[in-house]
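Trying the structure run again after the queue cleared.
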Amino acid sequence: MMSLSRFLLRNEYVLGFNCVQRFMSSRTNGEVRITQILKESFPQATSVKVVDISGGCGAMYEVHIESNEFKGKRTVQQHQLVNQALKDEIQGMHGLRIFTDVPKK
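Done. C-alpha cells:
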C-alpha cells in the first residue's frame, strides 16, 4: 500500500493547514484563463497573480492585481471593477478572493 504522503506528492498535492494544496510548479487552465482576462481588462497592471486555492479544481481563486487604474478609487470600487471583468468566469466559481493595489513609486 502506498503511503499518503507519497501518493499526494506523486499527484502534485501536499497536505497542509487541514486542506490539500497543489505545488505551484504548474498553472491550471483556469489560472491561465483568468490571468489573461485580467491583463486584457487592466492593461496598466504592473502585477497580476491568480492562484486556484481550491486545490486545482477551479472552484475558488485568489487574485492579486496592482494597477494604476485603481488610483483614486476606494477598495470596494476596485473590487467591483475586478468582479465586472470576471463576471462570466465567476458564475462557475464557488468563491473569489480579491486583493488590489496601486503600484508603489
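The longest strand covers residues 45-52. Worth checking whether this holds up in the mutant runs.
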